[in-house]
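Anyone up for a design puzzle?
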């Protein structure tokens, strides 16, 4: 079995001949995605987003464009410009999402999955935050380890681009990658990445089961359900419903569930311990005549049912 075949056996690419878009930065992860997608026999269009935000960005764009041209792969370059300042990473991510076609495949590996899980755990995430990316068709490499992917890229004779910001430990993800996971390995006396990934996969199956059990809840808007009914629900069901109902779209296109503290205060409203509570983003959850209302200032917001 070739190196490509061995890796493809643990990938989740669509069937050969399928038409796909790839997000390719020029780094080893995305170049590995490109090489494996080609080996899978997919019909490819490579997309590169140039943020023009760091030294070497134009060289990265040229590298990807030249590689695609030399290998007769369709290429689309996207130029986006994000003003420096606060929340730059979030704004750049949103600009990249707008530029890329829907459903574009990305080169996230098992290591990326576990780093995201650890970051979400540190933020206090619930079951949704501890099962990110799993089952997403745009993430075909979640079964592949980063080191194996990079070795495959080198074995193919490709010298991928290197983004020096991935080494900068002032960024929290890089500290998890370069420092925290190493400590976890030492404490566990084993490589924890596949252990955490396996646990997340099992939790994802349970999450899907919970989603099926509570499918009817997703159709019920915040203001539709009488609080006298809500207080009879199992606490886990009620908390899960409130998290979905109170999720908010924030400035740069990301959608965030409420914090654990916000959910706890929302429960106080449901159970009548208080009549209202303030939520992030200037919102207010209030109880009137046994029904909940989500308000901003004097305007009642449309709830997500």
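Challenge accepted. My sequence:
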């Amino acid at each position: 079995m070739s190196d490509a075949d061995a890796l493809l056996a643990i990938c989740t690419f669509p069937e050969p001949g399928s038409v796909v878009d790839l997000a390719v930065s020029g780094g080893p992860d995305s170049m590995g995605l490109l090489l494996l997608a080609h080996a899978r026999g997919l019909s490819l269009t490579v997309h590169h987003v140039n943020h023009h935000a760091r030294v070497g960005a134009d060289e990265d764009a040229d590298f990807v464009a030249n590689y695609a041209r030399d290998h007769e792969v369709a290429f689309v370059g996207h130029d986006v410009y994000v003003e420096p300042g606060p929340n730059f990473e979030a704004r750049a991510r949103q600009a990249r999402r707008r530029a890329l076609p829907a459903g574009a495949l990305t080169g996230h590996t098992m290591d990326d999955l576990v780093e995201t899980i650890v970051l979400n755990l540190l933020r206090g995430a619930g079951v949704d935050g501890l099962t990110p990316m799993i089952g997403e068709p745009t993430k075909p490499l979640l079964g592949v380890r980063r080191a194996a992917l990079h070795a495959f890229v080198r074995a193919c004779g490709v010298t991928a681009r290197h983004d020096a910001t991935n080494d900068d430990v002032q960024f929290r993800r890089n500290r998890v990658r370069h420092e925290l996971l190493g400590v976890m390995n030492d404490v566990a006396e084993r490589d924890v990445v596949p252990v955490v990934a396996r646990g997340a996969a099992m939790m994802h199956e349970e999450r899907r089961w919970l989603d099926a059990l509570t499918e009817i809840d997703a159709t019920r808007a915040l203001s539709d359900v009488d609080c006298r009914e809500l207080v009879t629900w199992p606490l886990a069901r009620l908390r899960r419903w409130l998290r979905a109902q109170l999720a908010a779209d924030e400035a740069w296109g990301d959608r965030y569930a409420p914090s654990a503290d916000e959910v706890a205060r929302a429960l106080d409203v449901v159970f009548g311990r208080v009549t209202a509570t303030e939520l992030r983003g200037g919102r207010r959850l209030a109880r009137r005549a046994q029904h909940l209302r989500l308000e901003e200032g004097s305007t009642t917001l449309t709830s997500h049912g």
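A detail worth pointing out: The first strand starts at residue 19 and ends at 23.
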